């Protein structure tokens, strides 16, 4: 089994999502469900509905009572017990909706097999779904206004607000369809069991480092970051901005960038070094050698490309396009350095 077979938490806005999750084990879905099982807490938080919504609280409670009974061996008294159970069986596939506060979530996020998924939908659609569930169980559905009040409390209450949890989600699913089949198709496309959601491959890892380097950029035109790598080890990093001892671009150091000239205009007067240039200068010719790979979050410009070719970079990997990608590709093709976009 792979690393991606651990606990998956669906951080949802309303309890009707549990019904969808429980459908994951329907026999007609076994082809794509891949064996996820629901882990639950015996005592779920009852604070999601404000006191003024007693009738709505009763409706939600009645709906839960009419659902399938819990499996005793997959029901736990507290979140720590649930997490311990899943940790010992991390190679199996689990899902829970019972993480109700940030403290509990932070403990789960420490585990390398845990993926937090948020599920959201328009409030009017969720009200319709909840009303349909009420009718199916011969209960009177709530008025929309009352449901919206419940929703606002559930999301934004300072103690139990779910918005503070969903902000930490590593994957967001917007379930705006009224068809379960479309939801199932979307889940299949997402491929929740993909290992790279939990541990990025080398290309993704170094591209994330390049994007992080870009956060140090002081260029007024565009943030760009670059990482030079050989044998899966970082040789150097770079980001764009004015050279040392010059005033930062975002402090007026480069008049050209601060004028807001259009892309490609006035480049001969630009005082900013590009991220690729900085990384190449930092590494030096001796450290680059054969097999060096350049990761840049933006496709290099043609000026940087000829320097990349000259120092003998073996491969270029980038994530965002630029206005001269085809010229860059041709130059690197001739210099026998493949370029790939991820």
From TrEMBL:
Its cofactor is Zn(2+). Coiled coil: none annotated. GO terms for biological process: nucleotide biosynthetic process. Transmembrane segments: none annotated. It is an enzyme of class 3 (hydrolase). Keywords: Hydrolase, Metal-binding, Nucleotide biosynthesis, Zinc. It comes from the Eukaryota. One of its GO terms (cellular component) is cytoplasm. The keyword Aminoacyl-tRNA synthetase does not apply. Belongs to the cytidine and deoxycytidylate deaminase family. This is Deoxycytidylate deaminase. It comes from Penicillium freii. The lineage of its organism: Eukaryota, Fungi, Dikarya, Ascomycota, Pezizomycotina.
